[in-house]
Amino acid sequence: MSSGRTLPLLPDGLLRAQRGLHRVAVGLDFSLQSEFALARALRLPLAYGAAFSVLHVSPSLDGHAGPAGAVAGERCLRRSVTSAVRRLRQRPDVDVREELRTGDAPHEAAELAKDQGVEVLVVGRPHLGQPVAPLPEDSMVMRLVREVDASVLVVMPHPGRVYHRPLVAVNFSRESRRALELTMRLCPASTPIEVLHVVDLREEAAALRRQDVPLARELQLRQEREDATRRALGRFLAPYRETGRVLESRLRFGDPRECILAEAREGESDLLTLGMSSEDPPSSLTEAVLRHSPCDVLISRHVAPPASLPDGGVVPAS
């Protein structure tokens, strides 16, 4: 449900956007893309006492493949966990967890996210070749985005540094606020965040042309709509700017998919964030961005975490 409030969703006091993540999970299938995902996950800001879960899901054995595959997966996972512990040696407060499971990968990832209150699941995007083929409806990435009740960070290239050119596409909804706030948590406080709103006037323009409205009047209506949208975007961002964050607003007109991807390419963004409702499946916009984005994609999906973890720890509010 969209909120008409102009206030941010952040609580009073210490801004949630200034805190690190408390529960991060990274999914590994030991491909090059998943290794990129692990490298990116290790660069994310982690709060004090955070849990960092490294997950590998082996398919259920049918008696024909034998146990060798499972044993190899366990050994590879152990090496990855050892590498993560070594990378986080300066953070003894971070609990690195080895999660080896058997079954359907999206289902097991969803269960892990639910059990541990995962805030962000980091996965690698498969190489789709050139020209880019449509992302299948049942692809692993799309199933994870659809089935996991947590935000999903889909990693493309090898991360060379922390995010420094993030782009957040907003439509003034509650999900957009969550997406912006999560992006603020992932990026250093000094990093400017580009915030894009796309105005799609194609249907309105077509209706005006069918009514033989003079071109001058059509241009006037477009200008009025642009002015009103800029004011709305300013109100949307004002509470965050008051905290000292640098937010650069952008406005485009046209097809949202084309505009968002064009802005990411032209701005050389290294992170593109979209908000997604927990009740609805991924939209055609989400799928198009995942399919064609030149950079990492964060699908922000906020779900209230459980009151406690299996180990008795309390999950902080996010």
Task: Describe the protein.
- The chain is an alpha/beta fold and 318 residues long.
- It has one domain: 3-Layer(aba) Sandwich (Rossmann fold).
- It is built from nine helices and ten strands.
- Helix 1 links the parallel strand 1 and strand 2 (46-58).
Q: How many discrete structural domains?
A: 1
Q: Roughly how many Å is the radius of gyration?
A: 21 Å
Query: Given the structure, what is the number of helices?
Result: 9
Helix content: 25-40%
CATH architecture: 3-Layer(aba) Sandwich
CATH topology: Rossmann fold
Q: Which percent range describes the beta-strand content?
A: 15-25%
Q: Which CATH class?
A: Alpha Beta
Shape: elongated
The biggest beta sheet reads: 10 strands, mixed
The low-confidence runs, each spanning 5 or more residues with pLDDT under 50, are 1-7, 10-18, 63-67, 304-318
Q: Order of strands across the biggest sheet?
A: 3-2-1-4-5-10-9-6-7-8
Give the SSE string: EHEHEHEHEEHEHHEHEHE
Layout of SSEs?
Blueprint: E1 21-27, H1 32-41, E2 46-58, H2 68-87, E3 95-102, H3 105-116, E4 120-124, H4 140-147, E5 151-155, E6 166-169, H5 174-186, E7 193-199, H6 202-210, H7 215-241, E8 247-253, H8 256-266, E9 271-275, H9 284-292, E10 296-300
Parallel strand pairs: 1-2, 1-4, 2-3, 4-5, 6-7, 6-9, 7-8, 9-10
Antiparallel strand pairs: 5-10
List keywords for this structure.
alpha/beta, 10-stranded mixed sheet, 318 residues, 21% strand, 9 helices, disordered C terminus, Rossmann fold, disordered N terminus, 10 strands
